[in-house]
Amino acid sequence: MGSLFNASFTGTPMILTAGQQEQGHGLMEPVLYGPLVQMAEPLVKWAVEVTRLEDLPRIVRRAAKIATTPPTGPVFISLPGDILNAEAGIELGRSTRVDTRVKPSDEALQALTQRILKAERPVIITGDEIVKSDALKEAAALAETLGCPTYQSSTPYGASFLSESPCFMGALSRLQKQVREVLSPYDLMIVLGADPLRMSVYSEVDPLPEGLPIVQVGLVDWDLAKNYGAEIALKADVKETLRVLVPALKAAGGAALEGRAKQGIAALKSKNWTARRAPLVEQISKAGDRSPIDPDWLALQLVEAMPANAILVDEGLTSSRQILALRPHRDRYGYHALASGGIGWGLPASVGVSLANPDRPVVCFSGDGSSMYSIQALWTAANHRLPLTFVIVNNGGYRIIKQRLLAFHGDDNYIGMDFIDPPVDFTGMAKSLGLESMRITDPKELKSALSSAFSRPGAKLIEVVVNGTV
After folding, report:
1. How many Å apart are CA 323 and CA 321, to the nearest integer?
2. How confident is the model at residue 2 (pLDDT cuts 50, 70, 90)?
3. CATH H-level, domain 275-465: superfamily
4. Rounded-to-integer distance, Cα 13 and Cα 71, Å
5. I need a surface site. Which of 90, 161, 399, 440 has the fewest CB within 10 A?
6. How many Å apart are CA 436 and CA 433, to the nearest integer?
7. Domain ranges of the chain
């Protein structure tokens, strides 16, 4: 159910099926029986139980249509045993896909254009719909047309902006006070396909500066003006909207807009993502001789060793805090991270990512605690001989829980948060599940081990022992 919650949170277009006891037998409350439709309903777009074999094609076609129509999401089909065992000649029906790549009306586009041009200091916030609509280039074009800074939303679980664009500033944090300070200089927030200010823990400080107006575009109507009212909210495809919005801005803004954009980009050059990366790399590199291995230094070595076309599945949590500042987003499928907050997603997700992208190497960067939730995914990777490397960061426990206990409550009495007595042998576990594996404790061995693993076919696991100090 936790995995289904994550699929719902990310809008994954997925059909989930489950076997059910024969119709009528459930009344006896046998073993392995439950009200599956009711259990699934809070987490899916549609849940149904098949009651006639003849209805199955229609149900499956409908499920696929519902799952793939924005706002996309999972659906659930319960299959009673008598339906699974039945045989009949049935009509298979026809598939339907609803095309929702809609752009705003001419009137709405004109209003949006004029409102954006009226702003003197706009800022752009991007989210998951940039990935879904394949709008990375278009979003960068908007930012560079305006010469304005762009941030990923505060839950940056995908590649929703091109990191090396001169306008990219990184991702917003989930600290309300910090976000409010970041956004305070601006006079218009342009939100593209995102729930822009999704926070974690409660704060008396609101992340949105008082009086900051919002314009918002996206197909997920639940996110449009969900928490903060928008002057303009357009239910439209992000890519199709940007395709007409950018030319409209250039035509209406003319030379004045072009000049202002050049000035804006020049002002960002010393503080954008690219400018900040170099000193960060220099700072992290100083920890290269530390033992136990420094987690940030491990993240840097991982990024530098990965092939250019590799996909990163990131559930490193405390060990991946610098990943977004180190590894550039260059395509919409190159980065996948934990979205809903429930850990244990990374290993099986990386198997799915690899199956979906057989021509690209995949790297799964996972904490040791997270990996324990779904370690059996290693066997599936070995069974399918996937080009997938698992890098397990072993800090001996649930470091993120320790950090939060200390930060939020000042409590360093970490009960039930370590697994060091006995220690978990991830290398041995991987071998027992069919993977080539190795354990790294010496920082001098790390670079060559990563480069070798990433360059060879097959499923592999590298366990890296890092400093677990809180």
Report:
1. 6
2. confident
3. Thiamin diphosphate (ThDP)-binding fold, Pyr/PP domains (3.40.50.970)
4. 9
5. 90
6. 9
7. 2-85, 106-271, 275-465
Task: Please identify which residue in the block is written with the tokens 């009711």.
Answer: 38
Single out the residue of 337, 316, 365, 433 nearest to residue 131, CA to CA: 337
Does 19 have pLDDT greater than 90?
Answer: yes
- Domain 2-85: CATH superfamily is Thiamin diphosphate (ThDP)-binding fold, Pyr/PP domains (3.40.50.970)
Burial class (CB in 10 A: 0-12, 13-18, 19+), 346: buried
If you compute the radius of gyration of the chain from its CA atoms, what whole number of angstroms results? 24
- Smallest CA-to-CA distance from 50 within 31, 37, 67, 33 is with 37
Quickly name the fold that domain 106-271 has: Rossmann fold (3.40.50)
Measured CA distances, 11 to 71, 108, 149 (Å): 7, 27, 27
Res 410: pLDDT: 94
β-bridge partners, 214? 189
pLDDT recorded at residue 433: 97
What's the Cα-to-Cα distance from 245 to each of 109, 131, 153, 258, 377, rounded to whole Å? 7, 18, 21, 15, 44
Binned at pLDDT 50, 70 and 90, residue 284 comes out as very high
Quickly count: other Cβ atoms within 10 Å of residue 77's Cβ: 23
Task: Grade residue 342 by pLDDT with cuts at 50, 70 and 90.
Answer: confident
Place of tokens 């404790």: 441
For range 134-139, the mean pLDDT: 98
Dist CA 241 CA 235 (whole Å): 10
3 conformational bin, left if phi > 0, alpha if psi -120 to 50, beta if neither: alpha
Is the Cβ–Cβ distance between 446 and 280 less than 8 Å? no
Under 8 Å between Cβ of 366 and 435: no
